[in-house]
Amino acid sequence: MSDNVADSARGRLGTHRSHINSRATDVQLNVESDEDGDGKHIKYQFSPSCVHRFLKTLAPNQKDFIIKHGLGYVFDIKNFHVPIELTEWVMSKTFATSHEFIFNHKFIHFTKDMVIKVLGFPSGSQPVQSCSDDFEIEALVEKYKLEYEDQNSYIIRKCMDLISKENDETTFMRHFLMFLISTILILGKANTLTVEYLYSLVDVEKFASYDWAKEKLLGWGSIKASFISTSNQLRDILTKTLGRSSSRVSVMYKSRYDRQL
Questions:
Q1: How far apart are CA 203 and CA 16, in angstroms?
Q2: For the segment 135-188, what is each residue's pLDDT rounded down to a tens digit?
Q3: Quick one: CA torsion of 174, 208, 113, 190, rounded to 10 degrees?
Q4: What's the pLDDT band for 102 if we cut at 50, 70, 90?
Q5: Residue 30: helix, strand or coil by DSSP?
Q6: Is the model more confident about 202 or about 248?
Q7: What is residue 34's three-state secondary structure?
């Protein structure tokens, strides 16, 4: 993407600043073939407005569960828009291995502390679990997966239905954390749940002890690497690899650009 397009994207971002909450949230994205001929391969999917509207429907006791577990910030999620051109431009100038955005010989180094500040998620030091050699844990995770399965897929809407109906605190928080991970923290594809992280939700009280910030950086780095390596085959390959996480970098970039560049 040319610098002229980047300048245009930054200008459009300025018109949206009044709508962006101090606690940033994702504009969910997906990469698709350019069937409509608009030159854009990144498309919007599960948006912050959907998350915001869903949270408003929760019962008072359910909201209390969320606040009790240190996640009350989610009620500050608002609807806002990050231009696709800006997202693509930021990705083109960000290096996956070093987590750095470089422009005009200046740079922003994305760190775990920045991820924690932007996401608001509690983050500890233990590695996030996405598999297990323990037979009992494996069986329990498979049982959990069945709750979310719908026509051979794990769709976010099914999780939302379970959340709405659940009054047991522990079960509610497992559903809710799965929802947050899949819509805000480590996004899946095509509005599906990232069920591999159920291994880290077997005991929901340990959620904050896992290093979610590092997992987010590693996940985005992998996405960025795929974006670069397949840039000449965007239509055929990126649909399978990019998912919807790239907008997080746009939010981090926006929050620090004026101060550092």
A1: 40
A2: 999 999 999 999 999 888 998 999 999 999 999 999 999 999 999 998 888 876
A3: -20
A4: confident
A5: strand
A6: 202
A7: coil
DSSP, res 166:
-
Tell me the mean pLDDT in the region 98-110: 84
> CB-based burial of residue 60 (10 Å sphere; 0-12 exposed, 13-18 middle, 19+ buried)?
exposed
Please say whether the beta carbons of 35 and 20 come within 8 A: no
What 218-222 contacts at long range (C-beta under 8 Å, 24+ apart), as own/partner pairs, is 219/186, 219/245, 220/96, 220/99, 220/245, 220/246, 220/248, 220/249, 221/96, 221/97, 221/99, 222/96
* Residues forming a β-bridge with 126: 210
DSSP state of 73: G
Residue labelled with tokens 């240190």: 70
What are the sequence ranges of the domains in the chain?
A: 3-260
**Does residue 257 have a pLDDT over 50?**
no
Q: What is the pTM of this model?
A: 0.67
